[in-house]
Amino acid sequence: MWDNLPALKAELDAFEQVMLEQFRSHRNINAYLDDLSRDIILSGGKRLRPAMTIASAMLGQYERDKVLGSAVSIELLHTATLVHDDIIDNSPLRRNKPTVYAREGVVTAVFTGDYLLVKSLLALAATDIPQEHMVRLAQAVEAVCVGEVEQYHGRGRMPSFKTYLSRISRKTAALFAASCALGAHLGGLTDEQVKTAGRFGSYYGIAFQIKDDLLDMLESTAKTGKPAGNDLKEGVVTLPVILAAGDDPRVLAKLDAVMSSVGGKKASKRDVLALMKMVKEAQGIERTQEVLTKYVALAGRFLDKLPDTPGRDMLRTILDTSFSGYTA
Amino acid sequence: MWDNLPALKAELDAFEQVMLEQFRSHRNINAYLDDLSRDIILSGGKRLRPAMTIASAMLGQYERDKVLGSAVSIELLHTATLVHDDIIDNSPLRRNKPTVYAREGVVTAVFTGDYLLVKSLLALAATDIPQEHMVRLAQAVEAVCVGEVEQYHGRGRMPSFKTYLSRISRKTAALFAASCALGAHLGGLTDEQVKTAGRFGSYYGIAFQIKDDLLDMLESTAKTGKPAGNDLKEGVVTLPVILAAGDDPRVLAKLDAVMSSVGGKKASKRDVLALMKMVKEAQGIERTQEVLTKYVALAGRFLDKLPDTPGRDMLRTILDTSFSGYTA
């Protein structure tokens, strides 16, 4: 993903070293949790959030030492929420590997996530970002918790588009927004520009989740690292389903049938496949691509308002690369 | 517990208000998690850790505004780890009420714990404690994670006393130590005195966990708020068992029998009762009381080194009250 952005890739390589440092101390005491954490970290995440923090800092005056510590803190926060997410989503695979939850059980998954959160806090404490950005990061994690619990309690029920949007804003977009805003702040941009960078991140994050919903409907495990239809199987109603059901009562009825079997038990594979077929017939994919296109354009519009710098070019490339082939 | 300490009680009342403030904002968005958090917080914890932070600050110059925010952060950290602990311990009850885990399931317990951790971080960000104490608190939570995972992986196996001690130092004592050290720092004590306060807290915490182990062996639900024998049922080997098994091969054999049924399945109630009987016959209770007495005395010795102030008197009263009736 970063081959077209060599300057960013060089920073991300340095970032990897700083991140791994967190799991090298006190090895005798924490070996088990350190090993698990390193396994997860090295299992091939794309480092999108740290890349955005770095690129946003390059909108202004880039100071590596200040930026990388914050980028590490953000990636560890994100990784922690993934480990806990996999419990909620009952996920067997992530990035084509068994999740901590699937491999080691719920107890270890809970404490590995907590451990990563603590490591994130330690990385943050080692920087001296101002209180206001520390609060913003904490609020982003708060948003993730709230978004996840909302989604969990809403499973099996069709949300309105508005509810869906507010849920993914919390669950996914808040941390992207914080990543960009913090980067822009560290680059010495004005408060107004920091806010604009945050809005770019927020729209990027919404688009990112919409693409994730599309992938759940479209792709096989090989491409996404997760089994197709896993969201639906867990009763999580994704955007293609919402948009397909919009004017097709058959889809709504089918959805109810699938979802009624969720909640304790799982939806059957046959039900999920039937539902996916109906969503496709009702143009759920195409409609989702149209919405995705809109949010990618919105993100681009905020990007236009930021200073014309190498950082902005990087963010533009990230935006284009992330969604190419998925927009309408 | 605080009736003999009216000055401390007044501060703890103010502390309650500050803590509840954390769960009043954005009520529309976070109502569910706020309500759950408030339920847990109001379910009757003794506020030992915040009391120690406050009393330790009273070893020097007490400034309420600085101290209460940190005390709130510590209590919320502790509460977060309890919520996640109840998952690991499979606990039906805490403080005589169903745990979040038992009532709402594992998913909600995971995210309620995370939410409390975030709220703790937000409370901390609102104070301006120095980086060094922020790191110490994060390390205390790190220690809790490591201690819990060690205990989980060690279940069903007899640890040495040394292993037991290092485990409870992390699982329980680290946060008491941080509570006292942070308080002493906020009271303006010297680095040496801050360290001494931390060691008092650490020995207090070890004694606290040993008493908890005794209670699991001795008391009914009515008194502890938790079912008796719950630790044993989950394969957690407590100190009375370790000390009883020390020179009684029958106890060791019985322990193996009970523990072999743990790990996925649970030990039967009959096995647990038989084990408890044997531990009592092998003087496990009395031996544990002797060890407890030793650690209470050690805590007292560090207390003696601290400045002779109302804060020290309070800490003395807390120490005496906590263990009266349980020492040898």
Describe the structure.
Two copies of one chain form a homodimer. By secondary structure, chain A is mainly α. Chain A has a single domain, classed as Farnesyl Diphosphate Synthase, CATH 1.10.600. Chain A is built from 16 helices and two strands. The first copy, chain A, has a two-stranded antiparallel sheet. In chain A, strand 1 and strand 2 form a beta hairpin. In chain A, helix 4 runs parallel beside helix 7. The first copy, chain A, starts with 5 loop residues before the first helix and ends in a 5-residue tail after the last helix. The mean pLDDT of chain A is 87.
Give keywords:
homodimer, 328 residues, mainly alpha, Farnesyl Diphosphate Synthase, two-stranded antiparallel ribbon, 16 helices, 74% helix
Question: What is the succession of H and E elements of chain A?
Answer: HHHHEEHHHHHHHHHHHH
Strand arrangement in the largest pleated sheet of chain A: 1-2
**Biggest chain-to-chain interface with counts:** A-B, 38 and 38 residues
User: What is the beta-strand fraction of chain A?
Assistant: under 5%
Which class of secondary structure composition applies to the elements of chain A? mainly alpha
What's the average pLDDT of chain A?
A: 87
Radius of gyration of chain A: 20 Å
- Please tell me the CATH architecture of chain A by its name: Orthogonal Bundle
Fraction of residues of chain A in helices? over 70%
**CATH 4th-level superfamily of chain A:** Farnesyl Diphosphate Synthase
Distance between the termini of chain A: 22 Å
CATH fold field value of chain A: Farnesyl Diphosphate Synthase
**Which regions of chain A contain 5 or more consecutive residues with pLDDT less than 50?**
none
Which overall shape of chain A is indicated by the principal axes computed on the Cα atoms? globular
What is the multimeric organization of the chains shown?
homodimer
Q: What is the count of structural domains of chain A? A: 1
Please identify the top-level CATH class of chain A.
Mainly Alpha
Largest sheet of chain A: 2 strands, antiparallel
